[in-house]
């Protein structure tokens, strides 16, 4: 096989296939690390002298033990071979150690992102100013890092627009010129739909779940209303909000006939809400948009285009960047800032419901499992639109950043780690034994779920029955 083709096919293999095809201890440790199966690595003494073991110590909150192991590891030949990947992996958990190990072997973007985490930003400023135009053309994310060293809002907006233009995306503006650069203060110029492959465009249902979202929901909905793709419905499923969210949505509904509101009488979490919204949607295609995310006006247009062009494709995904209220950008992994958007799946509703099912009905973490399942089941039928089509809000009190359910510099929460490993092993065993990977819209979990993120089954049943979802679809454990 030609070398280029061989590399292509190796890239196309997913982590589970790679895991099942090797008996190498070191290779399995690396794959487990890439899959985020840190508890598995720590539980196996065979992996103790590998660099994924140190990464796992950091990820699970054992930073002091990690530093002891690190002091030994940096003296080995393995460290020099795996230095870049290793340091970027520990960066979210120990920025000072990552900085201390930084050298010129790193690419410019990784260096800049690591420097952006320092309290003294002069080194970042000097580094960015030393780069030529070619560096920014090759790594447009560098424009975003200028926002760490400027206080001027217009300059921050210009940096964001330079970044967007490099992806051939239209520029955006501020709603309030005196306000900060943040998702609640973004707008776009009126844009026209570019020519698509079909004259008759299918309906796309955009699912938005809300819970006490009054601060963000207006800008989010306006970003969806102003999508260039014309044939759309916006379905908002409110998860029993106690603030002014409902009033704001109803005001928007009076202006836009394609916005629908579904009010849940009990709080059941975003994934039950997404499932209800999808089952009640009218569109041939379905996608989601979180209530604090701002969608670029061409998001739906660019994601549905490959699916209209190729009827065999079932799912498209896209990327995002996350914005803090001071106009700087954030990624949990620090580098790169441009990452896969876990809420971006746009899919053919009928195919997905029949062949994979929808989300696992838990409180948090189900997007990652759903996306992984889509990629495994529709292995050659999904496409990544390699553009940042969403700007998400980074908030300290979100499910993703909460101490009990999310990520922090002290490690990943035990609950999230347990859930992550549980669904990954369900996937591994299904692929290994050629078992169908499907989740029905029922109350039976196909794998072990930590009790901290379970949803009360009576509440799920109540909400499903509230909207006439047939009882025969609800299977109790």
Automatic annotation (TrEMBL):
Source species, domain of life: Bacteria
GO terms assigned for molecular function: hexosyltransferase activity
Domain Glycosyltransferase 2-like: residue ranges: 205-328
CDD domains: Glyco_tranf_GTA_type (cd00761)
Coiled-coil zones: none
Pfam family, one: Glycos_transf_2
Keyword annotations of the record: Transferase
The protein, known as: Glycosyltransferase DcbB
Species: Glaesserella australis
